[in-house]
User: Fold this.
Amino acid sequence: MATAHTAATGNRAGGRGRIRSGPVNPASAPAAPVESAIKYPVEDINAAAGTASAPLPALSAADKYVSDAVASLLGRKEVLTFLQLDGFVRRVVATVDNLAREHAPVSIWPVNPTPGRFTTGLGDNQDPAGETTINPDNSLRYSPFVIFVESIDSVKTVALYARLYPLFQQAYVELGYPKGYFNDRLVAVVDLLLATPVQTGPISVNRVDVKGPLQPTRPWLTYEFTDPALEALSAGQKMLIRSGSVNHRRLQKKLLEFRRLLAAAPLAQPANPAQQRVRTDKH
Assistant:
């Protein structure tokens, strides 16, 4: 069951884990769209910036190189507060791929989980099983992260991404897409997130009553969106909705900045993600 909170924290079996070279839950997780000709070559980003590619370490030995580059760009304090730098490239690639899926496991996020807990009703999470609404103050706990994202220099960040791109591409191949092109997947996922509808009114959720002796240790994970259209959205889209309408708009504005730099092309109209998915055993 894809719950409203699970979409922002990964599956219920979440927790810290090793980044694997392969899709999460490959037997059931849908793959990216079938690969075709490259749409958004990274070489165009380098050409626009007037930069040339530089020698890079092997992906298996790139953690310190990447960590130093990211910390130099964003600031050591901010990086330690908001990011997970161990296996950062693989974390980014796997999470981007998962944002268009039903689940995006927290154990492989490149960012730290948002502090605090998901709140509903009056904010005490004491609602009985059944329908309630997300507490309006729930969005406040996302504010520090949103402010951090807004502070990022989009031009310099995309330039660093382009410089490190061979590492991202290798991680994408190792994830299970030997003929795929990661930048195309990134742009497609950004387009999907940009198409997420902003919810301006109260958001209704339904708390599912878990029967039996084994109760969830985090009962606030047992909520799902009441509206079937919202419940059918991807993990990344649900994250945006749960962040609250103000944060949603602010994050989409920043995503649009990144999108314009990643691809000098008009916004695509995202198709139904379910229609784009194929089984991983075809790769």
